[in-house]
Amino acid sequence: MEIKAIRGFNDILPQEIGKWHFVEDTARDVFENFGFSELRIPVIERTDLFARGIGEATDIVEKEMYTFTDKGGNSLTLRPEATASMARAYLEHQMYSFDPVAKVYFMGPMFRYERPQKGRYRQFYQIDAEVFGVDNPMVDAEVIVMLMHFLHKVGLQTLELQINSLGCRECRPRYREELKRFFEKKSFQLCEDCQRRLQTNPLRILDCKVEGCKESIANAPRVTDFICSNCKEHFSRVKEYLTVAGVQFDVNPNMVRGLDYYTRTCFEVVSYDLGSQNAVTGGGRYDNLFQEIGGLDIPGIGFAIGMERLVSLLPKDRTFLKTPHLFIATLGDETNKEAYQLANELHLRGIRAELDYEGKSLKSQMRRAGKLNASYVLILGGDELKQGKAVLRNMGDKSQEEVPIKDLASLLQSKLPRL
Ligand code: ATP
Ligand code: MG
Asked: Considering the entire predicted model, what is its pTM?
């Protein structure tokens, strides 16, 4: 029987990878300009890190983790997100002793046992950025400005930034109680999951996508009416800094985000082109996370972008495929060695040259050059070759000229603008 990939686990094929590289390169570029450095984390961590860091009463920890026991009897989990691991690394390596402020980013696959569907997979990629050690609202705004700048730079246009404040450990419990009282009165309208959330984590009800629940949610008490004066002040400064930076936003008082550790600022960027899975990215402040994982009292803020959803939104009119600059076609077997040497030389000079390995006819070589979308074809052979020349065909306008082979690399470099 043919072995296939596991459901929810995707291959990213060469025709697609150009988009991924473009997104990843742009992220590195933008983030590093904002002072961020890459922090690479392991794929597997102790289960406790996620259970405590993300929170027991979250979808991820309740039902989405890939957890297993290793041969030493340790409970381990494939990372479902990056923030908890990044925070662990910051503590473990005492990065704060060098500088309390750490700006870090990471890109890589995450694993969640969810029902696979369009835009939702079991292995999916995230781009993640975090700032540890600052609670100044200026940083909240800076992180959001960076995110929006990045999304615009990769070409997304129909985006809406939604922000909210979730309060802190002082004022959140009061809101939680209020919310619980409100939903208890309507509990018969809530879905099964929300009935449970009512006991474990009533805030998560606000995030429910089930129609019946959505109706009750519409009239629920709003967190922004309950947050303390410090949180109000923090939130209004965030909004002020965003406005100063020219970033538009909407306040969505029902946005709570899926993870337990968020405090104060949270945000989501929604795209209108994606159907039901319309959140491309989400993030927020998490001033309790470090204490949960057994560390110091350190504030943090960050976001995670879903790569698959982002890639699916890239402008359709752009091509991200790296096609050959040149296809070397040969006339007869005796020119194979020249073709081979020439290709090697061009590769070393940064020119993407492709050639025929199968002794095919000129016609079928030309067909292959067309299929590969080569910009030029060099036809090597015959009398020209004896004089150190070959015919160079421009596959765009179909013009042909005879060129000295020794000048080919520099000639191509001048003809291909992006080299
Ligand atoms: P959702 O509400 O869509 O489940 P989430 O709140 O679980 O999202 P986060 O944990 O904040 O998502 O992850 C940030 C981003 O990662 C999401 O906005 C989304 O783009 C992407 N993402 C999350 N889960 C998946 C998945 N299973 N497959 C693909 N992308 C995902
Ligand atoms: Mg989710």
From this structure: 0.92
CA 150 to chain centre: 11
Atom of ligand 1 nearest to the CA of 281: 18
The rounded Cα 255 to chain-centroid distance in angstroms is 21
Average pLDDT over residues 245-263: 86
Cα distance between residue 161 and residue 406, in whole Å: 55
pLDDT in tens, 299-349: 999 999 999 999 999 988 888 989 999 999 999 888 899 999 999 999 999
The neighbouring-strand residues paired with 401 are: 392
Beta carbons of 208 and 194 less than 8 angstroms apart: yes
**Spacing, Cα 71 to ligand 2 middle (Å):** 30
Protein residue closest via CA to atom 11 of ligand 1: 282
- Backbone angles phi and psi of 302, in degrees to 5: -170, 180
Q: Ligand 1 centre and the CA of 124: distance in Å?
A: 9
276 pLDDT band, cuts 50/70/90, is low
Give the burial string for 30-65 (b: 16+ CB within 10 Å, else e): bbeebebeebebeebbebebbbbbbbebbbbbbebb
Residues 6+ apart with CB under 8 A from 278: 270, 271, 272
